[in-house]
Amino acid sequence: MDMHAGVSATDDAASSSHTKEARQRHILVVDDDEAVCAAYSRVLGRAGYRVSAAPDFRLALEILEADQPLDLLMVDIVMPGSVNGLALSRMARMRRRDLKIIYVTGYSIPGAGREALGPILMKPVDDAMLVAEIERVLGS
Questions:
Q1: Around Cβ 2, how many Cβ atoms within 10 Å?
Q2: Which tens digit of pLDDT belongs to each residue from 4-59?
Q3: What's the CATH number for 13-138?
Q4: Domain definitions of the chain by residue range
Q5: Which one, of 57, 60, 63, 64, lies nearest residue 79 by Cα?
């Protein structure tokens, strides 16, 4: 499932400028809950990002190995099967050293663990918080 969310133009000059910059950014969303992938994709698509979504590590790896620009991986830490979000992020970094990563989880992570991982969003993720964190990590 490779979902590319649509982008619409706005009349507001500031939003238009942000959308034009964001449109050049590609985000891979990985979550085993397809409804969550779809929701994140819609929010990020409305913000102007190009989004690919994967419900499992296999499809995520196919997207990571494709010859296309990819700016950020947004990955759920806890996923069923042998490859969780942490393992997937390590595989992603082996393929794309400069890839930025944001982790998402519904579980509590101790302070030291949080610092070691990097940016973590706690579920449920508010739409505005999601876009703000993506912009912060991408430096937009």
A1: 12
A2: 333 333 334 444 445 555 568 999 999 999 999 999 999 999 999 999 999 999 99
A3: 3.40.50.2300
A4: 13-138
A5: 57
